[in-house]
Amino acid sequence: MTTTMDIVVCLDCSSSMTSYFNHIRLDILSIVNELLIEHQSDVRIALIEFQSHTDYWITNIHPFTSSMNLFQEWMNAARTEGKNSNECKAIVDALDASLTLDWRSNTNFNQYHEKLVILITDGPPCNFLNDECSFNSKDLWKISDEFEKQDITLVIIGIEPSIVVCDDFYCALANKTGGAYLPLINALHVLSSVIPRAILEEETLTQLFRRADIHFDIEYNSLYCYSYVEKRVRFMIEYCHTMTDIRKWLFTYRYQPIEFIVDKIDDNDFEPHSPSSNRDYFHDFLCQNVNIIASTPITDDEGYRTRLPTTASTDSSFIHIIASSASSYRMEFDWTSEIDDECF
């Protein structure tokens, strides 16, 4: 069975990215150049540039191409500009726009088609810190549901240090689709290994990301430490259905004890079927069922989509966490909630 792949790069072009932009451009071109030279007939690349909702434009969409020269023209023409706003990133618009592109489908029995979106940013999405997006954008968490339905894998590349305020959310958003959150410092190494292997071998992107070594492939030499965010990531994936749920449970009450959260929650503030629909169940979940969450794979498919049989995998390296060498530094940035401290 042969494998083809469509890749969309969603690139943050807001002014806060200026000092990293040349580095990012070189990394992306390095990955794409190798892919298109070796697998030009099997790989297509698209580019979506986005800024902040406060800027005069939000997204600029370039459709799929197999031409390295054309893609390089797009990347070279990309510029950072606009207001330096880390709290209004039009990420939801960029990911929503990626769904409208002309993706190839898995209709050929002898060919498996991978779909990958690579989002690169240095800050939170527009509707992350505020109650709602004033620009009437869609719900970002629900957009990730559509990624799952269409078998699109999301990888988020975060630029430190500003990204640490929301790396737990980005990790959950990517893992929910079978993808991964990667600090910029390690992204080139991981993607240069994973993408070609998915094309050449009988493994999916999801399997390969899941089997990546957390410490040496993802955390190494960065501020990111998966063991600090793991419990929140698993909770978001299992029990949150909307961005309202994300904000209410994981950010509004970060410094409050569990008893305060349970007593103060107004069920009418939450979406139907959200985690708040049963207070006692939520409290029991937090304080009694921790071991279940910590030992269960992030999803149940073990990374298999349609290419291989759904045989249980014995490779669990993805969930064996080794503390990062940057752990002590990371503690200064981590917004540790009582969800982590009181009950665990």
Summed up, what is this model?
The protein has about 350 residues and is of the alpha/beta class. It has helices at about 20-40, 70-75, 90-100, 125-130, 140-150, 165-175, 185-200, 205-210, 215-220, 225-240, 245-250, 260-265, 280-290, 290-295, 325-330, 340; strands at about 1-10, 45-50, 60-65, 110-120, 150-160, 180-185.
Structure report:
This protein is of the alpha/beta class. It has two domains: 2-219, 3-Layer(aba) Sandwich (Rossmann fold), CATH 3.40.50; 228-341, no CATH class. 42% of the residues lie in helices and 14% in strands. It has 16 helices and six strands. The chain has a six-stranded mixed beta sheet, sandwiched between helices. α1 (21-39) links the parallel β1 (2-12) and β2. α1 (21-39) runs antiparallel to α2 (68-77), α1 runs parallel beside α7 (184-200) and α6 (167-176) packs across α10 (226-239). The longest helix has 19 residues, at 21-39. The radius of gyration is 20 Å and the shape is globular. The protein starts with a strand and ends with a helix.
What labels would you give this structure?
344 residues; alpha/beta; Rossmann fold; 6-stranded mixed beta sheet; 14% strand; globular; disordered C terminus
Mean pLDDT: 77
Strand content: 5-15%
* Total tally of structural domains: 2
Structural class: alpha/beta
How far apart are the termini?
Answer: 46 Å
CATH fold-level assignment of the largest domain: Rossmann fold
Discrete helix count: 16
Q: Which spans of ≥5 residues are poorly predicted at pLDDT below 50? A: 255-301, 308-344
Compressed to H and E, one letter per element, the order equals EHEEHHEHHEHEHHHHHHHHHH
What would you report as the Rg, rounded to the nearest angstrom? 20 Å
State the CATH class of the largest domain.
Answer: Alpha Beta
| Helix percent band | 40-55%
